[in-house]
Amino acid sequence: MKTPHRLICSLLVALTVSGCMTHSRRCDECGVVTQVSTYDALALGLYDGVASLESLRPYGDFGLGTLHGWNGELVLLDGRYYLIGGDGVVQPITNLNAITPFLEVAWFHEDDRRSLPDSTSYEQLRQTPNAFLPTLNAIYAIKLEGRFRHIKTRSMPTQSKPYKPMSDLVKTQPTFEFTDVEGTMVGFWMPPSTKGVGLAGWHLHFLTKDARGGGHVLEFTTGDVALKLGKCLEFHWQIPGTSDYQQAPFGVGP
User: 80-83 long-range CB contacts below 8 Å, 24 or more apart?
Assistant: First the structure.
């Protein structure tokens, strides 16, 4: 697979089950997650864009990520891209030539739905994921929709070179808080076995119902919220061919 930004190598990790064995089926029927780069690459400070949003249109209508230079927090919901900037302001993304250093996308279709008990916290999901997911060893596209009692998010301002690693930037990250707010959290559950490639565990971005606020989710407490799950059993990983990525000391640490 070729893109204008030297994303020259794709690996298809085929965690296949019955119904996903044939290439003639559409991605939205199979449950396939396509991901650009890795979460470890972001952790090391590889924020240069390597793929355009346009090049990823065939792979989903749902997802999350960021833009070149770690420019804000990106939400893809119902086929529309939104960018929550470092000032917390949301802008629809209409220029799909924009490039991303990290993006996860899928065609969302609901396989399971459950209402969360009132006052369920993000910490509860983190501590007892088996209470909310049928299995911890699949990938799930996640929607949390409804009214939340409280949400805390972050959104990173655009960075410039030389880039600092994520561990330094999050110490001074801008954060935003919402009370009694309606909206949708978009994200993925990645199994523990994917650590480093993805963000193992829950990874959620939030968009308010009026599309005026949101960000990367740090905390939440539910009101009347439904958890919707789309089970994904194929993972399509696009590996950047840039020299920065190819020479990065993955597994060694920042």
Answer: 81/53, 82/207, 82/211, 82/214
